[in-house]
Amino acid sequence: MIIALQSHQFANHPDLLAQMHRTRKKVFHDTLGWDVPVIGDMEADAYDTLDPVYVILTDRQMSTAYASLRLLPTTGPTLLHDVFAETIPETANLSAPGIVECTRFCVDEYFDRKRTWRPDIPASSLLLLGLCEFGIANGIDMVAANFDPVMQRIYRRSGCEVHVHGRSDAFGKRPVCCGTFEVSRRILLQMRAHLGISEPIWKPFDARVPVRRPGFAERPGRPVTQMAHMPLTALR
Amino acid sequence: MYVVSGLELALEDFGDIFASPVRPLEDIVVQLRDRLGVKHVIYHAARLGAGPVDDPWIRLTYPPEWVHRYLTHNYMRVDPVIREGFQRVMPFFWWDVRTASPQEEAFFIDAMAHRVGLNGFSVPVRDKNGRRALFTVSSDAEAGDFAAWVAGHRTLLVDLAFLIHSMAVIEQEGIGIDNPPLTRREQQVLYWSGQGKTAADIGLILGLATHTVATYLRSARFKLNAISIAHAVYKAMQAGLIDSVVDDQTEERKAIS
């Protein structure tokens, strides 16, 4: 299951977020050798203070964070703009309400795949598919991202279409690429076909605290904005 | 029962509202309310570097009695739409907002009694200088009808939120937002749009997916605060931003001629 947490929900999920920051330290600091701020066994930078969205691959109980990424709107301050505006402006200078930046995409490489509901599919692919579903439901058309070059193969295998705009060797042991992914219904169907998934995997609402407001308008049965959660056949 | 407008509206339909000479935002929110056919329009900006309730800058169409009550009851510190809205990134409905205390519950019931609208949809705004704002439309339409109307006008409402914000920044501070410069791709797609090419044509010329071209056009239009691609091309030409692209593209133009 994929969940997307925004700042007003962070207090409900302290364990998931702590696990995410620990995995980020292991991946970006320990493994990739990126120059990222580390506090104890966690990695967190200034952009984590800007109320981002975290998209997390978790189990049904929401107790373990297997993989995660961070989204910020490109209309506001972004890491890519601050870090890559000179070297890779094509990605870094994109700015519009339908474009989000994705940074800190990482998978906890020690987790036991059998514990997800689809052990046959890599965690990174599930996370990308969840990102696509979340994006479509929230009016996102494009994701601008930085990533390790080896990730490109994973992206393609998941049915994503990546446009790489450039790479830089200035940030650690390995080069960093910047590029964009299209988010659209076409890509969603392509990803589902590649991965052999027909059901939505992003869980749109925070089920821990149900919304109930006496006397106030109830949420409609099936909001029209949630096209991504309809079965595959309904999209055709 | 108040029903939202059945017309499909596009950003171009609002061109006159944003045309110069620019009118004050207090007039524009009223115009927007009437054109959109919603019950109320609210723009709420936080001061740069401050929280949403510390001396905010607000323009709205609420009745004066409710504004007075809101201020005298210090509701700004209770209102959960404000508390959550300035933390959220993605647009949301009022029914998604969780009331965290009996005070917040009582506030919502009081707001209902003062006819602010049965349902609302809010667009969080963040700009490159770190300013934050919240643009909200409310309606008395039934939840399902309102959700359907918002789904059909979502992009429009988001675009309006950011255009209103850019005008509010100028009205408040006298200068605009520091948007990043156009990228080379954005200059190229604007140039070819000015030559009458469709997104699909431009995709073929530049070797990009049509969707990618459309997104670059959207980014270019957004940075130029333009209400249409034609408007963006005009603004970019006036600023001399797409002249140099012609030289870069000699090769590409030869290839297709």
How would you portray this structure in words?
The complex is a heterodimer of chains A (236) and B (257). Chain A has helices spanning 14-31, 79-84, 89-92, 123-137, 151-157, 185-195, 232-235; strands at residues 2-5, 38-39, 42-43, 53-58, 65-73, 99-107, 142-147, 162-168, 176-182. Chain A is an alpha+beta fold and 236 residues long. In chain A, strand 8 (162-168) and strand 9 (176-182) form a beta hairpin. Chain A is globular, with a radius of gyration of 17 Å. In chain A, helix 4 (123-137) runs antiparallel to helix 6. The N and C termini of chain B lie far apart (59 Å). Mean pLDDT of chain B is 89; it is low at 253-257. Chains A and B meet through strand 5 and helix 3 of A and helix 5, strand 4, helix 6 and helix 9 of B.
Question: What is this structure, in a nutshell?
Answer:
The complex is a heterodimer of chains A (236) and B (257). Chain A contains 7 helices and 9 strands; from the N terminus they run βαββββααβαβαββαα. Chain A is an alpha+beta fold.
User: How would you state the average pLDDT of chain A, rounded?
Assistant: 85
Strand order of the largest sheet of chain A: 1-4-5-6-7-9-8
State the shape of chain B.
elongated
How many helices of chain A does DSSP assign? 7
Strand content of chain B: 5-15%
Major sheet characteristics of chain A: 7 strands, mixed
The percentage of residues in β strands of chain A lies in 15-25%
How widely separated are the two ends of chain A? 23 Å
Secondary structure tally, helices of chain B: 12
Determine the N-to-C terminus distance of chain B: 59 Å
In the predicted model, the low-confidence regions of chain A spanning at least 5 consecutive residues are 207-218, 221-236
Q: Which shape of chain A, going by the Cα principal axes? A: globular
